[in-house]
Amino acid sequence: MTITDLNDPEIREELGEIVQEMLDGIIEVSIPDGALPPAGGHQGTTIESSLTIEGGGEPTDLIVRIDGASAVALTAAMISESPDEVSLEEACETMGELTNVLGGSIKSLIEEETSLGTPSSGAHDTSTMTPLVSSVEVRHQLGCFEVQIG
Questions:
Q1: Strand, helix or coil at 64?
Q2: How many whole angstroms separate alpha carbon 31 and alpha carbon 21?
């Protein structure tokens, strides 16, 4: 696969499978249904993390979004803390790390030499965010991730 193949709709569907495998591999937790904390103070907040994959032509952006409450629950599960003890800043850092891991997984599939930019992440008011154009939704027990390449 080349970096320009990432714009192919079939490749984008494979992206969902890559994200699912990554989440299952990294998040080795089992949370019973209904055990996630309520959205609480994070309702209406979306965590967005992004990085650039460079090489072989046009740079390609990788964008990952998840709602704030799910990002906090995910972070809490990964560090074995209570969600009440996890800040949005910590959740943003976790999403940056997950985006970096996902970027590395995608990079390993690209035949040409590529490099990854440094991930950046932040919490945003969901109502003011521009919708992603051609994203893939990946549902996980800890939340619904929206992933876009391009």
A1: strand
A2: 17
Q: What is the pLDDT along the chain (150 residues), one digit of tens a residue?
A: 666 666 677 777 777 777 777 777 766 554 544 555 554 556 789 999 999 988 767 788 889 999 898 888 888 877 878 888 889 999 999 999 999 988 888 888 787 888 999 999 999 999 998 988 777 777 766 677 888 877
Amino acid at 119: P
Query: Does the residue 35 lie in any domain?
Result: no
Task: Report the CATH number that the domain containing residue 138 is assigned in CATH.
Answer: 3.40.1550.10
Q: The whole model's pTM is what?
A: 0.82
Tokens in use for 79? 């560090």
The rounded distance, in Å, linking the Cα atoms of 125 and 43 is 9
Classify residue 127 by its DSSP letter: G
